[in-house]
Amino acid sequence: MSPQTTRRFRTAKKIQFAAVELAVRDGLSNVTTEAIAKEAGISTRSFFNYYAYKEAALMGPPPDYPSDASEIFVQGTGKLIDDLSRLIEAHLKRFLEEREIFAHILELSDSDPKLNALRNSAMLARRAQMRGLLHRRAPGSDPRIIEILAAAVIAATNAAAKDWASGERMDLIASAKENLVLIEQAGLLLETSPTAA
Fold first, then answer.
1. How far is CA 96 from the centre of its chain?
2. What is the DSSP string of 21-35?
């Protein structure tokens, strides 16, 4: 069973949506865990079964890579960039209905250091997950290359998500795939000589 289909996950998302709605409406500093719990239709005690504090509720459940798509990626024998593209598509398509929520979280995190730190921490966690998948896909590869590639993949998907949230790009998945191709192009750029101006 996918974590996204469990009752616990659905409740965690309900709490997140309530937290974001209240933070946008009343200002994050004016939002309490009690208010979030009430808005989500749960007890305050239940809130703490899901999140330790309100900023964590705003971030929602960790958006780990889908396990089935991750295994397909690890076992893949095609071109790495193509298999990465399929993994990222499987990951991002779960969030296509959450554009407004994501945009609000970005806006709120720009003005709240704790929320911004949590967002950065979530990106580092995804980078560690990507690093692990790449190590499994290419065992024996230079760990430095794996680390650099993992960071580039996260930067590519994060840039796509920001463009999508701002309305600059309307297709999140297409934008992410285009950014992944840019990683490959960046590698080729390092092999070229500078041209005369």
1. 12
2. HHHHHH-GGG--HHH
